[in-house]
Amino acid sequence: MQITPAELEIMNVLWDQPGIGASEIAEELKDDKSWNIRTIKTLVGRLVEKGALTTEPDGRRYLYRPAIKRGDYQKKAAKQFVDRMFGGRAAPLVAHLADSRGLTPEDIADLEALLGELKK
């Protein structure tokens, strides 16, 4: 399932606050996006069609809940990105990140800890 960057904005709101309606989603995004309620409803409709959201009637409106977990989507999207950009190899990705923006001492410590766990 491909989720566009705009749809991901909607998903992030619903992962944080599942079971809200389109107007609440619009309220959450009003400071970052200049989307009107029709735009929100269009994006939500696409996500429902893709199977990323479920709907629940609530009077004259619908409440939306993610049908996929954030972590599951992140894993799949990260794998697709690494496969497409780095031939499925993580080392070139890390090297690119280190070259392009530098790794903080905290980043390096986190990576060392992760490698230590993976070696066990």
UniProtKB/TrEMBL annotation:
SUPFAM superfamilies: Winged helix' DNA-binding domain. GO terms for molecular function: DNA binding. One of its GO terms (biological process) is negative regulation of DNA-templated transcription. The keyword Transcription applies. Keywords: DNA-binding, Transcription, Transcription regulation. The keyword tRNA processing does not apply. Belongs to the BlaI transcriptional regulatory family. This is BlaI/MecI/CopY family transcriptional regulator. The lineage of its organism: Bacteria, Pseudomonadati, Pseudomonadota, Alphaproteobacteria, Hyphomonadales.
